[in-house]
Write a structure and sequence with these properties.
Keywords: Oxidoreductase. This protein is an alpha/beta fold and 345 residues long. Helices cover 50% and strands 10% of the residues. Helix 2 packs across helix 11 and helix 4 (90-103) packs parallel to helix 5.
């Protein structure tokens, strides 16, 4: 699908429907990046639906506590929990998964909303370009570590858990350079200091959103239909957000103008996250592996659907599993136990 600038403007001017509602009694919901923006607004919506457990996964203890207090004041929901996770630190992701394995019980909805938008190379403590690690390594790492809990939930409670990965329409406007896509170390190349020049970092955020789509599609391809866990990607639209706080100069001025003419509030954008997490309760399979925008399933970019894109998707999956398996052997074990391996690259 080709997505033009004009189509983007029209979509931003559309009247957005009200939030989808569901009964979450007894269910567990995790929202990453839950202390601000889309994550906090989505958390507020979930809180109005009486979840058994609502876990705010945040990087900052102090900001997370402020969010807990505000959530209670705004919604009256008092059972929310603050769990700390820093996606720029693999050990923090592993500790979060360890805690859930000990204390979490069932898991019905995982909203992977946390992301970084950066146009400068900043290495993480794990020696990856930070936005790539946060958006495309730690996001899949957590999903794959929590997958057994979601499968157990499906089996024990006869329900269909969902993984919601927040992507963006920006994935339509970028593709993986051929010299990178044909490299067996695609992710390692993209995450290296040598590759992350000022020029190459200009489209880094859009590229990470493309890889979000590729991850969801690759995971779906390997999830047997007998496992009722739904993985989907969602475009929240262009919203007022702290995500672009690093912008400066002309870019900051341009973004300021765009926000005032086109942007949704974070609350409006969060409705799309809720729609992807809770819609089609009677036919959840409709959302399996899908990319949603404007409250319906939408075709992904031409690059994703092209032979080149499919090859990049499968190669990036194999590399991702190898990288994450070295970070935590449970990834390798979960992939081998639960996911199929008969995918042709």
């Amino acid at each position: 699908m080709h997505y033009s600038g004009w189509a983007f403007i029209v979509d931003q001017w559309r009247t957005q429907p009200s939030v989808v509602k569901a009964d979450l009694t007894g269910k567990t919901v995790i929202v990453l990046g839950a202390n601000t923006g889309l994550g906090f607004e989505a958390t507020k919506h979930f809180a109005t639906m009486n979840p058994g457990r609502l876990i705010l996964a945040c990087r900052s203890q102090s900001k997370g506590e402020v969010a807990l207090d505000k959530l209670k004041a705004d919604t009256g929901y008092s059972k929310a929990e603050l769990w700390i996770i820093d996606l720029a630190d693999f050990s923090s992701v592993k500790q979060f998964a360890d805690k859930f394995e000990r204390d979490g019980g069932r898991l019905d909805v995982l909203v992977e909303n946390a992301a970084i938008a950066s146009m400068k190379y900043v290495p993480s403590k794990d020696n990856w370009e930070t936005s790539l690690q946060v958006n495309n390594l730690s996001t899949p790492l957590l999903a794959l570590l929590l997958l057994p809990a979601m499968i157990r939930t499906a089996e024990q409670y006869s329900t269909t858990p969902r993984i919601v990965v927040v992507s963006s329409s920006m994935h339509y406007w970028v593709k993986i350079n051929k010299d990178v896509s044909e490299n067996p170390d695609m992710l390692k190349t993209l995450g290296s200091a040598e590759y992350c020049t000022n020029k190459n970092m200009m489209d880094r955020y859009a590229l990470t959103k493309l890889f979000n789509v590729l991850f969801v599609r690759a995971l779906n391809d390997r999830l047997p239909s007998s496992i009722p866990v739904i993985a989907s990607a969602v475009d929240p639209g262009y919203c007022y957000s702290e995500l672009r706080r690093e912008f400066s100069g002309v870019m900051a001025v341009f973004d300021w103008l765009l926000e005032r003419t086109l942007a949704f509030t974070a609350e409006v954008g969060s409705r799309r996250l809720i729609w992807t997490a809770l819609s089609h309760q009677d036919q959840p399979e409709k959302l399996r592996g899908q990319y949603s925008s404007n409250f319906h399933m939408t075709e992904v970019s031409d690059f994703v659907l092209s032979p080149e894109g499919v090859k990049a998707q499968n190669r990036s999956w194999d590399e991702l599993v190898d990288i994450l398996g070295q970070v935590d052997p449970r990834v390798t074990a979960n992939v081998q136990k639960y996911l199929s391996h008969d995918i042709t690259v």
